[in-house]
């Protein structure tokens, strides 16, 4: 991925661009490119009714009319929200307070399990974005069964998961440099080259953001400026602007600025995404507890990196980064909607099983269904505790109840009991 080289203009170029503005085909092309908020890199080789340099000049002129500025350190960042952005924000607002909220409420006690599942997916994907080399299936099994991480990659995921669980409880705190360092320390515990880096701002300027070929994409601010910039970041997070900034947009800006400052030796990306979650939850956007944003980012990593790059190369225009993240959020909302609908259907099936399986409760039926889907893999008491958020005694009673009814077989593995599907009771009756 190369850093885009932006065009330069002479007085003659600007004069020619203004003359081209008299051509309605040119203006139509300008508006069409701006509607998609294309970067110079995306138009310079396009077939257009005028020289792309002239089109780009006019695009920038029209963009400036609707731009807002955010001062930060010595820089001025800006952004413009069009109707498409506001439509996505409206979708988020109405989903949290309308139909999706009703769907989530309808699943009752299973809401906590959905949150746990989302946190696991978020932790896995966020770590994989930063290079954790493990499969989603293996990572999720480790988290569900509370297994000890076997390597640094699995420890990255476990740290992310534990931090995400902690973040919900920190939503009442104002952002402070101490909290930023605390989040970083939790995320990176035991995974850095030097343990002294955990929760500590970098003390040198050796850090560079590079692509897979080693090309430098971003040079962070000097380390001497980090403390002042983080103080300003916290003030921005805690303050109220004269002009309203939608809370989700503000959370996205915080995400970008953390990556831009790059205050730590490693773990900046994970910390930036965690900071976004902290902020939107603090602003009562509870829906994000059910959303694994990083999973969608992982699936579009190239676009994620370009959104950073386009912002920095186009005069710190945050619109690219904001639009990308709103697209990701929209996709994730639809995934949540589909997931909850699927779970509701499964819940109906579970209720049917309860009718034919004696006095099993809903959670015990869900445990049984999990075992039915993976008959070759045993389940432990710890896994039930993690997945369903229950105490040890409750998890143990559930599994023993299933074993006593003959649906599962209890075995000993090492020093603990495990439970396998396929006991003497046979399979529960299928739905007619």
Automatic annotation (TrEMBL):
<dbReference type="InterPro" id="IPR036597">
    <property type="entry name" value="Fido-like_dom_sf"/>
</dbReference>
<dbReference type="InterPro" id="IPR001034">
    <property type="entry name" value="DeoR_HTH"/>
</dbReference>
<dbReference type="InterPro" id="IPR003812">
    <property type="entry name" value="Fido"/>
</dbReference>
<protein>
    <submittedName>
        <fullName>Filamentation induced by cAMP protein Fic</fullName>
    </submittedName>
</protein>
<feature type="domain" description="Fido">
    <location>
        <begin position="175"/>
        <end position="327"/>
    </location>
</feature>
<keyword id="KW-0805">Transcription regulation</keyword>
<dbReference type="Pfam" id="PF02661">
    <property type="entry name" value="Fic"/>
</dbReference>
<dbReference type="Pfam" id="PF08220">
    <property type="entry name" value="HTH_DeoR"/>
</dbReference>
<dbReference type="InterPro" id="IPR040198">
    <property type="entry name" value="Fido_containing"/>
</dbReference>
<dbReference type="GO" id="GO:0003700">
    <property type="term" value="F:DNA-binding transcription factor activity"/>
</dbReference>
<dbReference type="InterPro" id="IPR036390">
    <property type="entry name" value="WH_DNA-bd_sf"/>
</dbReference>
<keyword id="KW-0804">Transcription</keyword>
<dbReference type="InterPro" id="IPR011991">
    <property type="entry name" value="ArsR-like_HTH"/>
</dbReference>
